[in-house]
Design a protein that fits this description.
Order of helices and strands: HEHEEEHH
Strand order of the largest sheet: 1-2
Number of helices: 4
Number of strands: 4
Helix content: 25-40%
Shape: elongated
Structural class: alpha+beta
Distance between the termini: 48 Å
Radius of gyration: 18 Å
Length: 117
C-alpha cells in the first residue's frame, strides 16, 4: 500500500525495496530486495543533499548506498569548517574522514572551505 501511495504521489521511475539487513531475522521477517513498481534503479543514481551531489548504488551498495541518518552531522561539519576558516583564515583547516563509504563528510568539508589534506 505504501508503494502504491508513493507511486501515485511522487511519480518515481521505480520503487525498489531494500529490506535485507540481518536484523529483520530477529524480528521474524524475511529479507526482501526487489522492484516493487516500475523500473529497477540503474547502477548509479545521483542524489542531492543540501546542494551537494552524490552518486549511489541502490541495488548493490551497502544498505541504500547513502547514510541518510548522517545528513545533519554532515551539515554541522560544513558549518564548523566554514566558521573555523572565517575565524582563522591563515590557519589551514584539515579533516580526516575515517568513515568514508560515500565520502560524504569529506565532500561537505571540502565544499565549506577545507584545505587539501
Amino acid at each position: 500500500m505504501l508503494a502504491e501511495l508513493l507511486w501515485d504521489i511522487v511519480a518515481p521511475r521505480g520503487i525498489y525495496e531494500r529490506s535485507d539487513v540481518d536484523v529483520r531475522g530477529k524480528e521474524g521477517l524475511k529479507p526482501a530486495r526487489a522492484v516493487l513498481k516500475g523500473d529497477e534503479p540503474p547502477g548509479n543514481i545521483a542524489i542531492e543533499e543540501y546542494g551537494r551531489r552524490f552518486y549511489v548504488d541502490l541495488v548493490r551498495g551497502h544498505k541504500t548506498g547513502f547514510y541518510l541518518d548522517q545528513r545533519e552531522n554532515r551539515a554541522l561539519l560544513a558549518e564548523l569548517v566554514a566558521q573555523r576558516k572565517s575565524a582563522q583564515p591563515d590557519t589551514p583547516v584539515r579533516c580526516l574522514n575515517l568513515f568514508s563509504y560515500t565520502g560524504g563528510f569529506g565532500l561537505y568539508a571540502l565544499s565549506a572551505g577545507r584545505d587539501s589534506p
